[in-house]
Sequence to fold (267 residues):
Amino acid sequence: MKKSITKIIIATLIAATMTSSVFAAKAKKPKAKKILVAVGNAYKPYCYIDEKGKLAGYEYEVLSAIDELLPQYEFEYEPTQFTSLFSGLSQKKYDAIAQQIEYNPDRYERYEFTKETYTTFITYITVLKETQGINSLEDLSGKTAYISNGDNSLWYLEDFNKKHPGKEIKIETGNLSTDERMAGLKSHRWDFTVSTKRDVESRNKEYGDILKITGKPVQTSSTYFLFQKGNTELRDAFDGAIRELKKSGKLREISIAVIGGDYTESE
Fold:
């Protein structure tokens, strides 16, 4: 009888010890940190709201793939206007932002950039097909461009004007939709804009074959994810994930499936 009682006590102690170990293991498992990522909401096919009211596009697909590789983080998304991305990051509302964001010195002073890029972004002067005699920015003196607020081309054109007094380009800015921008070009309200070749091809499919790129690239750059200044831990985690996506071929697959070609390293 004593032996039976002893066995029961021992078994109970073992079970209790195992249960405690399980709870201890669970307690030690790090909880995923929630990360709020702001993404543009009106730049198809990169980031937009689909017919079901959900965030879609290349940025979202790449971010989802990064999220899968970073179990220490749990991504949450907030679609917003392009200009709100930067103000929100400056105010520490967001942990990261995304919308085909290019480098410029002003941004670099304020935010952390990934070291790894994930899309090329080569831009050209974009005009109506009937337009003649424009091959460079020097040919655009006195002419008017439309550039979206916050677009890196705005910084570049303003810098051009500073360096070319007397030959300035007129710049109109705003937050117009693609329909409105196309209407402005067709009505000759603006003489040109600045776009990537792939965006021009996309617009021509949607609005008729009315646009062309002209001259050499205005800018040859790439795109980055941005973070709060000093948050190198999150930046480094993104960099590691992007490198893995490149190595596995997943980033290339996403680019081809969503954008229509491999624009991850070159064009």
